[in-house]
Amino acid sequence: MTGPGGGGPGWGWGPDYWARQVCGTSVLLLFNERFSLLCCFPGIKFSIRPQQPQHDSHLRISTEKVTRDSPSGSPRGLQLQAPDQPRPHPKAAGSPLRLRQRRRRLLIKKMPAAGTNRGNNSSETFIQPRPRTMDSRWVSLHQTQQERKRVMREACAKYRASSSRRAVTPRHVSRIFVEDRHRVLYCEVPKAGCSNWKRVLMVLAGLASSTADIQHNTVHYGSALKRLDTFDRQGIVHRLSTYTKMLFVREPFERLVSAFRDKFEHPNSYYHPVFGKAILARYRANASREALRTGSGVQFPEFVQYLLDVHRPVGMDIHWDHVSRLCSPCLIDYDFVGKFESMEDDANFFLRLIHAPGNLTFPRFKDRHSEEARTTSRITHQYFAQLSSLQRQRTYDFYYMDYLMFNYSKPFSDLY
To answer: What EC number(s) does this enzyme carry (predicted)?
Structure first.
């Protein structure tokens, strides 16, 4: 049986594996022999022992019987080093009993609630940044990551309970790009900085010397970057379990408006004839022959009608699909969750963590239609003001899981 995305025979494997994780999934606080504090980044290290191939077209990654594993032997991961401080005399550190009690309190405080532990081939990766002082900004960015992952886990545990028992298939990893030199997996979320992120990956891979040298068509239509589903079963399992996995998200309404402006308000040889013509034919009364011929001139309310129609005349598109469908965050335990709204800080923090070259920073330039203002919350409200309150509510319901998983506030006060 052939798996989706070019899998091929032999994708099946048994659920017999084991994993351990030290000190919970949120934050690991360890003390070395001199009682210096080491604050380690989150993630899960899975050591997988596959059985003989079964007649199954999936990558079976069972989520039951998950135990914890220490990070020793991990090739890479996220670790924050506390600032250098004078080392206290051993007696000043307190008795072993007090130390054990403190560790226990930390474990209880940071341990996830029952049912939130999702086995998904995630890696307990520990990357030590370049020597630097762990200033308040560094700590704040680290704590933000912990909070985002906590919110995401809780949403998955509450609303996607069955996901923990599903198998990861090539389809689930089809949007994930691979950078082997720095051992990074990036899940592409369109309209959330994906073009520039792929530029960064190409520089990390040594395919270009600067992000400014890479053209748009090279980014999106070239084959320089590999997708995870192009690897065989062992290659996928290995990378999911040992690479640093990250994704960047964006406020759902804002992302939707950005996609509409890009695809329907500018000439486009694909979206106008494929989506535009179908939308105009179905949702515009008395559409002109010219409009039906070209598919140009789709209005935002017509586009939203298409989006909310359970019998869409054309299928869903990645530019406005849910992040929960594109990246399967309830199956794949991402080590880093960035946001478009704090892109510069989050992106450069991540590059620091993976030991990217010091001169590589996330590019600020706008990939397309550079003369046009970026889609902001103000512009988003202008577009949604064209909709009825019922349409706004239904659109919010459509993206509810993305709002919940990534902790975005309701964009309008009349939403419930």
So the answer is: 2.8.2.-
* Model confidence pLDDT, tens digit, residues 90-122: 444 444 444 444 444 443 343 333 333 344 444
User: Helix 343-353 to helix 194-204 angle, to the nearest 10 degrees?
Assistant: 20
CA distance 32 to 8: 47
Alpha helices in 167-229 (DSSP H): 194-204, 216-221
The gap from C-alpha 214 to its chain's centroid, in whole angstroms, comes to 23
Q: What is the three-state SS of 5-43?
A: CCCCCCCCCCCCCEEECCCCCCCEEEECCCCCEEEECCC
pLDDT tens sequence across 175-207:
999 999 999 999 999 999 999 999 999 999 999
Residue written as tokens 């049986």?
Answer: 1
User: Which two three-digit tokens encode residue 19?
Assistant: 């994993």
- Say whether pLDDT at 391 is over 60: yes
3-class SS letters over 63-107: CCCCCCCCCCCCCCECEEECCCCCCCCHHHHCCHHHHHHHHHHHH
Q: Let me know: does 122 contact 241? Beta carbons within 8 Å.
A: yes
* pLDDT digits 0-9 by tens, 276-311: 999 999 999 999 999 999 999 999 999 999 999 999
Distance between CA atoms of 302 and 298, rounded to whole angstroms?
A: 7
Residue 290 near residue 272 (C-beta atoms within 8 A): no
**Which tens digit of pLDDT belongs to each residue from 9-30?**
334 333 333 333 333 333 333 3
Question: How many angstroms separate the CA atoms of 301 and 72, rounded?
Answer: 54
In this structure, what DSSP letter does residue 338 have? E
Q: What is the DSSP string of 220-265?
A: HH--SSEEGGGS-HHHHHHHHHHSEEEEEE--HHHHHHHHHHHHHS
Dihedral sign (CA 205, 208, 212, 215): negative
Query: What is the amino acid identity at position 19?
Result: A
- Spatial distance between the Cα atoms of 168 and 62, rounded to a whole number of angstroms: 9
Nearest partner of 179 among 151, 166, 198, judged by Cα: 198
CA distance 38 to 416: 43
